[in-house]
Design brief:
heterodimer, A: alpha+beta, 4-stranded antiparallel sheet, 8 helices, extended, disordered C terminus, B: alpha+beta, Beta-Lactamase, 5-stranded antiparallel sheet, 5 strands, 39% helix, globular, cytoplasm (chain B), Dynein light chain roadblock (chain B), dynein intermediate chain binding (chain B), DYNLRB1/2 (chain B), motor protein (chain B)
Chain lengths: 593, 102
C-alpha cells in the first residue's frame, strides 16, 4: 500500500479540511524529529449573516453566572423501621430449661443451690451494707420533708407595679368631645361613656350629642349609642339592674335609658324642674324600688328623683351654708358621694372647694346640711369614700388630693404635695384599701399606694397627650378606664401587685388613718387652745372697751389698732423725754458715770 | 447440711435489714430475674422482680451513657405510699441484684 496524494475536494459551500501526510515506507519506524513550524491558516470561515435571520434577537438577556461547582440536591430516606413498645410481664422468672417453675421442689432446690454460690454470698454482703446505710439514712431524717409548704404565697418576687393599655375607645365623631364621665356595667363587660364639651361656649354647632356604650372587646364601634337632647355630662349604670342607665345633661336635665329599648331615652325630666346648670354628678340610691337617683349641679341644688316619674324631683336641697335655702348664696356642686352602707348621709363637693356633708333624713331643711370641710382652693372634682374605711374620704381639687376623716373638720388628715398639673378625677381601688388613682390635666394617670409611699405616686403613667378628665375602676380592681379631652377612653390593666389584697393592708391602713386623725385632732385642740388664750388675753386688755369682738379681727381693724398703739407709744416716749429734760444736771452726772 | 459461715452472715444481714424501722419486705433477684430470696408473697415478688429489673437496667445504662466511668450505685423510687430502694450489684453481668421495699 503506497500513500498517495489526495487532493482536497471542494464541494459547493462546504470545504473539507484535508491534510496530506506522505511518508516513504522505508522511513517507517524511524524516530520522529519534531521541528517548529510557523502557524499557517488552514481554514477561515467568515460569519454568514444570512444565518442570523433564523434567529430572534433578545436584548437584554439575563444570564446568571456563578463560578462554583455544580451541585445537585438529593434526598435519601431509609426504609421505615417499625418499632413497637411493649412490656413483658415476667410471670415467672427466667428459670433454666430443666426446671419446671411450677414444681416447688425443683425451684427450692435451685434456689438453695444459688444461695450456696460464693459470689452470691459476697455480693449480697456488700449490697446488704449499702442497703442498710440507706435505710438508716431514711430513718434518721426524712430527706424529702417539705419545708415551708404553707408559705408558698409569701414573696412571689414583688414585681414593680405596672399597668398596660388594653384598648382605646375613640370618639367616632369628627368633632371630638371630652369624655366627662365613665361608668362600668355591673358585670364589667361594658363601659358607658358620657361625652360633652365642658368648656363654656366652646361646643360647636355640629358637635354630636351622642354618648356611647362600648363593649370592651370591640373598640372599633360602640355597642350602643345614647341620644339625649343635650350632651351628657354624667352617666351611671344602675347597679341593681344592668339594663338601665341614668344620665345628667349639659342643660340640666336628667334622662333615663333602658338599653333594651334603644337609643332614645325612655324618659327625660322637664326643663323647668331640672337643674339650671350642667348636672355634674348623678348617683343611684339604695332604695326598695331601686329607682331612686340624686343629682348635683353647679346651680347649687341637689335633687332627688324617681326615674319612673322624671317630670319633677321628689326632693330638693339647696347647698346654702348659711342654711337659709338661698339659691343665690348656694355653692355650686361638682361632685357627689353616696355610700350604700350609710344611706342617710351623703357628701357634696363644691366649686368653691368646700365639701359639704349632708343628712338626708333631717327633719328640717336647715338641718340637712350637717357640716362642711374646707380644704381645696379650687372645685372639688372628685369625692369618694374609702370602700373599706367609710369614715375616710378622698377629695381631689386644685393640685392636690386629700384624704379626710369625717371627724376632723378643719383640715385633711393626709394630702399629697402640690402636683404640676391640675387633678381632675380620683377614685379608690375597690380591692386594696390603700390604693387610689388620680388623673391629671397633663394626661398622666397616677396610682398612689399610701402604705408604700406617701410623697409620690407608686406608679405614674402617661396615658395620652391631652388632659384626662375622668377615671373609673372596674369592681375587680384590675381594669381602669380613663377618659380624655379628645374623646379617647383608654382601658388599662393594673398589675396584680396593685390589685390584690395583701394580708395586712386593712390593719395597717386603719392604723395609719388613726394616727393621722389623732395628729389632726391634737393640732385642732392646740389651735383651739391658742385661740382661747388669745381671746382671754385680749379680753383682759380691753376691759374698758365694750362690745368689741376680738374674735374676728378684720384687716382694717388691725391697721387702726396698730396706728393707735403707735400713737400711744410715741406719746409715752415724748412724755418720758420731757420728764427727763427737766433736771439736766442730774442727767449729765448720770451720763458721766 | 449446715450453712456455710458466710451464709450465716448473709442470713444475719438480711435479718438486720428486715428488722430496721419501716422495712416492709426484701427481695433478692439474680440477673435472670429469678427471685432467690423473698419475704413477701409469691405474686408480688414475681411482679416486682420482673418490673424493677428492667428499670434498673435502664437506669444503669442511662448513667453509663452520660459518663462511661460512672456507674449506678443506688436507686430510690419514691412514691406516694412507699419507697422502693434498689441496690444493684457492681458488675452488670454478675448474678445478683437485690432490692427491698421500704
Amino acid at each position: 500500500w503506497v500513500c498517495g496524494n489526495w487532493e482536497g475536494l471542494t464541494v459547493l459551500g462546504r470545504m473539507e479540511i484535508v491534510h496530506v501526510y506522505t511518508r516513504l515506507r522505508g522511513e517507517f519506524g524511524r524516530q520522529c524529529l519534531f521541528s517548529d513550524r510557523p502557524a499557517e491558516l488552514l481554514v477561515d470561515v467568515p460569519p454568514d449573516p444570512r444565518l442570523a435571520q433564523d434567529f430572534i434577537q433578545k436584548n437584554p438577556r439575563d444570564q446568571a453566572l456563578q463560578a462554583c461547582r455544580d451541585m445537585s440536591e438529593h434526598q435519601v430516606n431509609t426504609e421505615r423501621f417499625e418499632s413497637d413498645s411493649c412490656g413483658i410481664n415476667h410471670v415467672e422468672g427466667g428459670w433454666p430449661k430443666d426446671i419446671n417453675p411450677q414444681e416447688m421442689e425443683q425451684t427450692i432446690r435451685y434456689r438453695k443451690k444459688v444461695e450456696k454460690d460464693e459470689s452470691y454470698v459476697n455480693s449480697l454482703l456488700t449490697l446488704g451494707s449499702v442497703m442498710e446505710h440507706c435505710i438508716r439514712q431514711n430513718n434518721a431524717v426524712d430527706i424529702y420533708q417539705e419545708y415551708f409548704e404553707d408559705e408558698d404565697e409569701v414573696e412571689e418576687s414583688p414585681e414593680p407595679p405596672s399597668a398596660k393599655t388594653i384598648n382605646v375607645f375613640r370618639d367616632p365623631n369628627e368633632v371630638k368631645r371630652t369624655v366627662s364621665c365613665l361608668s362600668w356595667h355591673p358585670d364589667g363587660g361594658k363601659l358607658a361613656a358620657a361625652y360633652s364639651c365642658l368648656q363654656f361656649q366652646r361646643s360647636s354647632r355640629d358637635m354630636s350629642l351622642d354618648s356611647y356604650i362600648w363593649d370592651i372587646e370591640n373598640p372599633n364601634r360602640p355597642e350602643l349609642t345614647l341620644k339625649p337632647a343635650s350632651p351628657l355630662v354624667c352617666l351611671e349604670y344602675n347597679p341593681k339592674d344592668s339594663h338601665t342607665l341614668v344620665g345628667g345633661a349639659y342643660n340640666g336635665q336628667i334622662a333615663y335609658w333602658d338599653t333594651r329599648r334603644g337609643s332614645q331615652p325612655v324618659e327625660t325630666s322637664s326643663v323647668e324642674q331640672s337643674h339650671r346648670d350642667p348636672v355634674y354628678k348623678i348617683i343611684w340610691l339604695q332604695s326598695k324600688t331601686g329607682t331612686d337617683v340624686f343629682s348635683a349641679s353647679t346651680d347649687g341644688q341637689v335633687l332627688w328623683w324617681d326615674v319612673r316619674r322624671l317630670s319633677e324631683p321628689t326632693e330638693r336641697l339647696v347647698l346654702d351654708l348659711s342654711r337659709e335655702g338661698n339659691l343665690d348664696r348656694a355653692l355650686g356642686a361638682v361632685s357627689l358621694e353616696f355610700e350604700s352602707t350609710m344611706p342617710t348621709k351623703f357628701l357634696v363637693g363644691t366649686e368653691q372647694g368646700v365639701v359639704v356633708s349632708c343628712n338626708r333624713k333631717a327633719k328640717t331643711p336647715a338641718e340637712k346640711i350637717v357640716c362642711s370641710y374646707d380644704g381645696h382652693h379650687g372645685p372639688v372634682y372628685a369625692l369618694q369614700r374609702n370602700p373599706f374605711f367609710p369614715k375616710n374620704f378622698l377629695t381631689v381639687g386644685d393640685w392636690t388630693a386629700r384624704i379626710w376623716s369625717e371627724d376632723i373638720r378643719d383640715s385633711a388628715i393626709m394630702w399629697t404635695k402640690y402636683q404640676t398639673s391640675y387633678l381632675m378625677d380620683a377614685c379608690w381601688s375597690p380591692v386594696r384599701p390603700s390604693v387610689f388613682f388620680t388623673v391629671k390635666m397633663d394626661g398622666v394617670l397616677d396610682v398612689w399606694d399610701i402604705l408604700f409611699k406617701q410623697n409620690d405616686p407608686t406608679l405614674s403613667l402617661k396615658v395620652c397627650d391631652e388632659a384626662l378628665y375622668s377615671l373609673r375602676l372596674q369592681d375587680n380592681g384590675r381594669l381602669v378606664a380613663c377618659g380624655s379631652q379628645q374623646g379617647g377612653a383608654t382601658l388599662l390593666e393594673i398589675s396584680s401587685g396593685l390589685s390584690t389584697l395583701q394580708k395586712n393592708d386593712k390593719s395597717l391602713l386603719a392604723a395609719m388613718f388613726e394616727r393621722e386623725t389623732k395628729r389632726e385632732k391634737v393640732l385642732e385642740a392646740r389651735q383651739r387652745e391658742i385661740r382661747l388664750k388669745e381671746r382671754s388675753r385680749s379680753e383682759q386688755s380691753r376691759e374698758g372697751e365694750p362690745g368689741r369682738e376680738d374674735a374676728d379681727h378684720g384687716p382694717d381693724q388691725l391697721i387702726a389698732k396698730a396706728q393707735e398703739d403707735f400713737y400711744v407709744v410715741t406719746e409715752m416716749e415724748r412724755r418720758r423725754r420731757d420728764a427727763n429734760q427737766q433736771p439736766p444736771t442730774e442727767l449729765e452726772d448720770v451720763d458721766v458715770t | 447440711m449446715p450453712p456455710f459461715p458466710s451464709q450465716a452472715e448473709v442470713e444475719e444481714t438480711l435479718k438486720r435489714i428486715q428488722s430496721q424501722n419501716g422495712v416492709q419486705g426484701i427481695i433478692i433477684v439474680n440477673t435472670e430475674g429469678i427471685p432467690i430470696k423473698t419475704t413477701l408473697d409469691n405474686a408480688s415478688t414475681v411482679q416486682y422482680a420482673g418490673l424493677i429489673h428492667q428499670l434498673v437496667m435502664k437506669a444503669r445504662s442511662t448513667v453509663r451513657d452520660i459518663d462511661p466511668q460512672n456507674d449506678l450505685t443506688f436507686l430510690r423510687v419514691r412514691s406516694k405510699k412507699n419507697e422502693i430502694m434498689i441496690a444493684p450489684d457492681k458488675d452488670a453481668f454478675s448474678n445478683k441484684t437485690s432490692f427491698l421495699l421500704y
